[in-house]
Design a protein that fits this description.
With 233 residues, the protein is an alpha/beta fold. The chain is built from seven helices and 13 strands. Strand 9 and strand 10 form a beta hairpin. The protein is globular and about 45 Å long. The N and C termini lie far apart (32 Å).
């Protein structure tokens, strides 16, 4: 049923201007926030929420602090029993951590790949620095279910990671995974030649994936991985 739901594109629930969520499964939501960019105009940016048995994690913040506050308030209203225990930052760009200060103020621990720290230092952006770092993988528990974060290789950026939720057969791929028929997007920090192999590693790491959420655009299934491989081949 998960797959059928995703194909039918469940409806967006508006939270406030520039912020909405889509329920993908009983426990998983896609959050979507609007980022104003100079090169691409207004861009809708995805993150993920996974709630299970009084605990939750969020992949990527909404793009700024006000929207992050609105998202956390919405979760508090609709899932008052849930404690958000972690934020996973997919990579060092603003569409992943633009609201990180709000998460830290709420006492939520943030995690990212160790390269994210170096890239933010190079940018001179220490305001938005995550708190904890990992190298190859990081396993977290959400209500006794595993959430595994992997660095599988360079693609959209050198620090981009994936978040795999085996119980939900769901991957949050972030910007290294493209929605169907999308263009290549922002390549400023990309490793275009490594990109297809990195996506192949996602396929071999999470062969049972049914739901794949890209950084921008509609969620889908494994066809998003195949499309991305073909796009960068």
């Amino acid at each position: 049923t998960c797959l059928a739901q995703v194909i039918a594109q469940p409806k967006e629930i508006a939270i406030t201007e520039g912020l909405s969520v889509i329920k993908l499964t009983d426990n998983v939501y896609q959050h979507i926030s609007d980022l104003q960019t100079t090169d691409f105009g207004k861009v809708k940016c995805n993150g993920l929420i996974y709630l299970n048995d009084k605990e939750g994690i969020i992949c990527d913040t909404p793009v700024k602090n006000e929207l992050s506050k609105a998202l956390l308030e919405w979760i508090g209203q609709h899932h008052p029993q849930i404690k958000i225990k972690a934020l996973i930052v997919n990579h060092f760009h603003a569409d992943c951590l633009g609201g990180i200060e709000t998460f830290h103020a709420a006492g939520i621990t943030s995690y990212a790949h160790e390269r994210t720290r170096e890239l933010l230092k190079m940018k001179g952006d220490t305001l938005q620095m995550p708190e904890k770092f990992f190298s190859s993988s990081l396993k977290l528990n959400v209500g006794r279910k595993d959430v595994i974060n992997y660095w599988v290789g360079e693609a959209h950026t050198s620090d981009n990671v994936i978040t795999w939720i085996p119980a939900e057969k769901t991957i949050f791929g972030g910007c290294m995974v493209k929605s169907m028929n999308a263009g290549k997007g922002n390549l400023a920090d990309a490793n275009v030649s490594a990109w297809p192999d990195t996506i192949k590693k996602i396929k071999s790491t999470c062969p049972s994936a049914r739901i794949v959420v890209p950084g921008h655009g509609e969620a889908g299934g494994q066809e998003l991985l195949d499309y991305t491989i073909a796009l960068f081949k």
